[in-house]
Specification:
Elements: H1 7-12, H2 20-41, H3 46-70, H4 78-96, H5 106-124, H6 130-152, H7 157-180, H8 184-187, H9 193-220, H10 228-249, H11 252-262, H12 265-298, H13 303-328, H14 334-344, H15 347-353, H16 355-376
Length: 380
Amino acid sequence: MRRFETPADTEASPVTRVSTLEIFFDLIFVFTVTQLTSLIAHPHGVGTFIEAALIFMVTWWMYDGYVWLTSNLRIERTRYRLLMLTGMIGFFQMALSVPTAFTTGTKGFGAGLMMAALAHAMLFAHRPRSSGRAITYTAPLNIAISLFVFASGFAPETWRVPLWAVAAGVLMVRLVSFIVFPSQREVEFSLSPTHFIERHGLILMIALGESIIAVGTSASGEGQMLSWEARFLASFALMLTASLWWTYFSRDDTRAEHVLMELPHNLRVSKGGVVALTHLGMIAGIVTLAAGFKNALGSTDERLLAASFLASGVSLYLLSDGFYRRSLGLGPGRLRFLFAALTFSTAPLGAYAGPLVQTVVLEVLLVWMLSFITHRRPDA
C-alpha cells in the first residue's frame, strides 16, 4: 500500500531542488545589483565606493541567510510562502533605498532589513532539530544589526558611514569566525549540498545577467543611433561575460556539490561559509564590471574610470573564483590568480586606447585561460 507524505515528512526530507519561489525571490537581487551598479558607475569620490561596499556586505549577509534557510526547509506550505514573500518585501525596500541609504533612505533600508530578518527567524523556527537550534545564535544578531542600521538614520549624516562600518564589520567577522572557528551549535547545522551549490550558482547567473542588461541599456540609451564602435564594444562585452560564466559553470559547480557531499558534517558547514564569502567577491566583481560597461558605453569623458572598473571587475572575479576553487579542493587556482594579475594590468591600456581595445584584450586573456582549463589543465 502506498504511503503518502505528510507535511512533517516533507519538511524532514532533504531539500535537493531549488523551488520556483526561490527563483522568484532571487529576482529581487537583479534590482539590488542594478542599484549598486548605478551607484558606483558615477561616484562622488571614494566615499561612494565605501558606501556601496557596506550596503553590499550587509545585504549579502542577509540574502545568503535565505540560501541557508531554504537549504533546510521545504517551503510548500502556505504560511512558509507568505513569510518568504514578506522577506521579499523587506529586500525590495532595501534595494529601493540603495541610492539614499546614507542620507534620507537609511531608515527605509533598516526597516526593510528588519522585515527580512524577522521573516528569516520565523521560518527557521519551524526547524525543530539541529538547524533550528543553530540559528538561535544568529537570529538575534540579524535583528540587532537591522535595529542598529535603522537607528543610524537618526544620527548625523557624518556618523552614518562609521556606524554602518561597525555593522558590516561585525557581520563579516561573524562570517569568518563561522568558517575558521565554528561553534558546536553551528557544526550541527544541516546543509543540503545539491541545493546550496545550485542556489549560489543561480544568484551568480542573475548577477551576470545584470551585467548584460547594463551593456544593453547603456548602448541603446534614449533611442540614440548606435555607432559601429558601440556595437562592437557591446558584442565583446557579451563575449567577456560569457567567458566569466564559462570559468565557473564548465565543471566547478557540479564538482563543488560532490566535494560538499563527501565532507564530514562539521567541515561541510564551514565550507558553506567559504562558498558564501567567495561568491560575495565574485558578485562584487560582476557589479564593478557592469559599472565599467555603463561608463564605457555612456560617456567618453569617463574613460579612466571605465578602464579601472573593467580591469578590477574581471580581476576581482577571477581572484574570488580562485579562492573558491582552492578552498573547496577543486584545484589550486593558480591560473585564476595569474590571469587576475594580467587582467588588472589592462587598466592603463584602457585609459590610453579606449574601452573597446581593453575589452578585446580582456576577452583574449580569458579565452587563453579557458584554453588551458578546458584542454590542457582541467583541474587548474
